[in-house]
Structure to design on (146 residues):
């Protein structure tokens, strides 16, 4: 495996870990404030990060591999759609109207927040991966100049 390809894979792994972290760092205080629990935003962040990383490992990584294999270069809309698709299993288990103890309005709000967080995480993944790859490209071009 070439050094360039190894750096691209490392950048992808870093982007998979950075994207949910960055998005939840911004959205957790907003969600906590919207339910009147701003003082507990760290708890929202921790639980959100736990579920986000589980979703990344179980759904986002396989979706990314399939997208690269069948669609070629990954575009922004691929990542956003992948983030939404990766958030759907959480929505299906956590916000099930049959077994949920939450009222219908709250479940709808959490569903929208989960899907929006997935979409933002996908967009953030695309951006972070692009920035890291561009930085590597810049370093390689500077090394090749005599």
């Amino acid at each position: 495996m070439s050094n360039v390809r190894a750096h691209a894979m490392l950048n992808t792994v870093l982007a998979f870990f950075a994207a949910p972290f960055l998005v939840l760092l911004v959205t957790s205080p907003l969600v906590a404030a919207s339910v009147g629990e701003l003082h507990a935003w760290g708890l929202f962040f921790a639980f959100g990060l736990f579920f986000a990383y589980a979703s990344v490992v179980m759904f986002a990584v396989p979706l990314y591999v399939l997208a690269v294999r069948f669609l070629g270069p990954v575009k922004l809309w691929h990542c956003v759609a992948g983030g939404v698709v990766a958030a759907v299993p959480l929505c299906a288990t956590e916000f099930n109207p049959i077994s949920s103890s939450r009222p219908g309005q709250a479940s709808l709000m959490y569903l929208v927040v989960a899907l929006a967080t997935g979409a933002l995480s996908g967009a953030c993944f695309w951006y972070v991966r692009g920035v890291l790859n561009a930085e590597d490209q810049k370093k390689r071009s500077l090394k090749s100049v005599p």
